[in-house]
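Our preliminary data section would be incomplete without showing what the modeling component actually yields. Below, a chain of 93 amino acids is followed by its predicted structure, encoded as tokens that our downstream tools consume directly.
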Amino acid sequence: MKYQSKILIIDDDSITGNLLMDFLRVKGYDVSWASNGACGIQKAFEYNPNLILCDIKMDPIDGFQVFSVLKESSLLDKVPFIFITGNSDLEDV
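Predicted structure:
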């Protein structure tokens, strides 16, 4: 059986979440999606992903808070974490 990398997407926008999920699945990845920061933290511990893609602006727990919680865990602190956002303003970058 071929090993599949597991990617967790944490994004409160279902359109973006589903688009990323579909694209990554077509490329052969095992993908899971969480619709908010709290669910994302819980799912990260359950799913044990190889990569996390996380939206920055979510309520009530934003992407920075998700990152902080997961990096405090010895189980998930080495998992690569990439912030994603729809913002393109220079000050946001």
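The two ends are 41 Å apart (CA to CA). The chain has three helices and four strands. Preliminary results of this kind motivate Aim 1 of the renewal.
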